[in-house]
Every structure is written in structure tokens, then in C-alpha cells.
Design a protein that fits this description.
alpha/beta; single chain
Length: 197
């Protein structure tokens, strides 16, 4: 387990801003939302990200929380040590920041672990696709490394599939499961020989 601090190199931020500023804009066919995002609205959004958004302020805000990396998996830690552990799993395309506003509501009652799915945020990209079952195994290992043997799990979107697989793999460890944004074709209880599918 390695302590982690968000510190994106300035060169990467400069390159991103340059790419945003170099956007080639299509001609507007219509100026409403009937055919997708109107170029004028998209241009305002891109200009905000290129010229106004303060990434360093966001880093400072997020670095208030303890963060670690365990076997390439990034996780933010918050809440009350010794309270009921709660693993919060984000969706796609998403990140651990999804839960930033919820932390203050949950912190007094839970020991929060908020990982970045492998390949997202600050977690390393795995050499091969893991699927929900493989990510569930990594998150079980993360919780073990943090000394948290029994815990609640919340997952949303693809995170709901990961949370479900974690519960199927380790029913003795999961004390409660909450799913949100459940995809219509989510995985259901599969035979053990199909968990890697």
C-alpha cells in the first residue's frame, strides 16, 4: 500500500488546454438540440475547460482526503475509522469524484473506501480487460489490504455489476449491497465457472 497524492504534471495540463483551444468546429446545421449538442453550446463548454476551470484547486480539494494505491488500484479514504466500512464503486464514464458531495453525509457513520475502477482515474490500466468479476476480485484484495474484512458495498452503472460480482464471490464479507443506475442487461447470479465471463 502506497500513499497517493494527486499531482498532474503541468505539461499535461498545458497540452490538454492546447488541444481544447485547437478544436476544429463544424458548421452549425441547426442551433437547437434537435440534432445533438449545438456547436455554440459545445464551444462555450470547451472554452470553460480550456480557460476557466482551475484544476489545481480541484487537486487541492481532493487531496484533503487520504488516498492510497494498492496493486495499482487508487482509492480515496474518508469518514470515520472503526465505523462500518462502506465501499463506493463508480460507474462509466465516471470516477471516484462522483461521490465527493456524498462524503460529508456519510462520513460520520461510515469508514469510506472510494476506489477508481482499474483503467479509470488514477488506477493503473490492467494489461488485459478484467470485466466486472475481475475488478470485484481486485476490490476484495483492496479491502483486505486496508484491513477491512467485512463491509457494505454500493455500486452504480458498471459499478453495480462489480458490486454484485463482489457479493457473489464473497458473500461472507459483504454485509449489505446497494445498487443504483442498474443497467438493463446487468449480470445476475452466475455459476462459479462463469464468473469471469
Amino acid at each position: 500500500m502506497t500513499p497517493f497524492t494527486i499531482d498532474v504534471p503541468q505539461a499535461e495540463l498545458d497540452e490538454l488546454r492546447a488541444r481544447l483551444r485547437a478544436t476544429r468546429w463544424p458548421d452549425a446545421v441547426v442551433d437547437d438540440w434537435s440534432q445533438g449538442t449545438p456547436p455554440a453550446d459545445l464551444r462555450r463548454l470547451v472554452e470553460f475547460w480550456a480557460d476557466e476551470y482551475d484544476w489545481r484547486a480541484a487537486e487541492a480539494r481532493l487531496n484533503v482526503f487520504d488516498q492510497v494505491k494498492v496493486d495499482g488500484v487508487h482509492a480515496l479514504r474518508a469518514g470515520t475509522p472503526g465505523a462500518t466500512p462502506l465501499l463506493l464503486i463508480h460507474g462509466w464514464p465516471d470516477g471516484f469524484v462522483r461521490f465527493e458531495r456524498a462524503i460529508r453525509f456519510l462520513a460520520a457513520r461510515f469508514d469510506l473506501v472510494i476506489p477508481s475502477i482499474p483503467g479509470y482515474g488514477f488506477s493503473d490500466r490492467p494489461p488485459t480487460a478484467l470485466g466486472p468479476a475481475g475488478v470485484a476480485r481486485q476490490f476484495a484484495q483492496l479491502m483486505t489490504a486496508l484491513g477491512l474484512e467485512r463491509f457494505g458495498v454500493h455500486g452504480a452503472d458498471i459499478g453495480s455489476q462489480i458490486a454484485e460480482q463482489l457479493t457473489l464471490q464473497h458473500p461472507e464479507r459483504v454485509i449489505g449491497l446497494h445498487l443504483g443506475d442498474v443497467p438493463l442487461r446487468r449480470l445476475r447470479a452466475l455459476p462459479p465457472d462463469q464468473l469471469d465471463a
